Amino acid sequence: MVERAVGIAKSIMRKAKEDKRDYLVGLMEYRNTPTSGLDLSPAPMMFNRRLKTKLPISNKLLNAELFNNIREKLIEKQNIQKLHYDKTAHPLLELKQGENIKF
């Protein structure tokens, strides 16, 4: 999850540099975009409210809210990912001393 977020942030910064625009605006919009499975964006998870951006938004949505079940949703999502991974994962074969390996 974190690796994907870093990749998206790098992509936003790269595209902003190509277009000669401010990358911070793109990052703020990304932080306000809900992530799949959690129905919340990073900003409300951290600050308990949405960030004000250049896009029009209702003042009611900018007010602070309490999000109590974020941790439970995150753990549930991680358990589902683990279940899918464990379906195809298998233990590595043991290496014997002197066995040739490729890397």
Structural class: mainly alpha
Average the pLDDT over all residues and give the rounded result.
83
Strand content: under 5%
Round the Cα radius of gyration to an integer and report it: 20 Å
- Describe the oligomeric state of these chains in a short phrase: single chain
Shape: flat
Helicity range: 40-55%
What's the SSE pattern? HHHHH
Termini separation comes to 27 Å
The tally of beta strands, per DSSP, is 0
Largest sheet: none
* Low-confidence runs of at least 5 consecutive residues: none
Number of helices: 5
Structure description:
One of its GO terms (molecular function) is nucleic acid binding. By secondary structure, this protein is mainly alpha-helical. Helix content is 53%, strand content 0%. The chain contains 5 helices and no strands. The model has no long low-confidence stretch (mean pLDDT 83).
Sum this structure up briefly.
GO terms for molecular function: nucleic acid binding. This protein has helices at 2-18, 23-31, 42-47, 59-62, 70-88. It is mainly alpha-helical and 103 residues long.
What labels describe this entry?
5 helices, flat
Structural topology:
Elements: H1 2-18, H2 23-31, H3 42-47, H4 59-62, H5 70-88
